[in-house]
Amino acid sequence: MSDTGQESMTRREIGNWWSTGVIRIAPGEIEPRGYPVQELIGQASFVDTVWLMLRGELPDPRQSRLLEAALVAAVDHGPQAPSIAAARMAATCGVGLNSAVATGVNLLGDVHGGAGQQCVELLERMAALRAGGAPVDRVAADEVAGYRARGEYVPGFGHRFHPRDPRRDPLLGLVGEAVEEGVVPGGPLESALALEAALSEGRARPVPMNVDGATAVVYASLGFPAELARGLFVLSRSVGILAHAWEEHGSGARIKGPLPRSVLAEYTGPPTRHVPADRRA
């Protein structure tokens, strides 16, 4: 093989190593999913572009509206959220803004930030059972009974702070409208409402959906895989994390810890004691 042929093969091999269907880049050309970026600018919203990058096509405006509502709903929940508090503390420690944001984002795991993904997985599991002919109320009751038997929380329901999450009703209302218009299927909403009813049965105080459950209904209805539900939550919450990190950055505070300086953590170890004399140098 000639040197020119060998060089051509090497270039193809290198190009194939990072081959992607997400974007085409060439000198003077940028095409996310095949669309020239200059045509997207001013014509597609940021949410449209999120959909395009993840799904490969531009969304219907009604799909875009529903996705945007879910992203707006989960933007922030104040410094009592660990991801927000951590970002604010990091911002007072001399790190850059990007590091402060990364600190908050890195706290979004299975317990704090993962319930939306887990709820979509639950809705997908219920959909499979319903496809086999099981009635939704029975499926929901069985799922709730299973979580209770394992001593686990049903992901996406109840809130430690809000008796009724104020984000639930508007999100589910938009999903209901989209179902009526034929934009999305009704299965995820029906399953989630059945879970809510099963959780509240026999209780004086109901257990309504929280933002994780309501956004899970949105993401499942729009056909996003469960793992992307967490990714979309991270994208949304990153905005709140950024805002809090920037505010704290401007406060002038230094080394802000989890407790005010006047408050000390309660000590639960042994009382004050002294090193035995025979161990002293």
TrEMBL record:
Top-level taxon in the UniProt lineage: Bacteria
Pfam family, one: Citrate_synt
InterPro entries: Citrate_synth-like_lrg_a-sub, Citrate_synth-like_sm_a-sub, Citrate_synthase, Citrate_synthase_sf
Pathway involvement of the protein, from the record: Carbohydrate metabolism; tricarboxylic acid cycle
Single annotated GO MF: citryl-CoA lyase activity
Extent of the signal sequence: none
EC number: 2.3.3.16
Alphabetized NCBIfam families for the sequence: PRK06224.1-1
Similarity comment text for this entry: Belongs to the citrate synthase family.
Protein name: citrate synthase (unknown stereospecificity)
Organism: Streptomonospora nanhaiensis
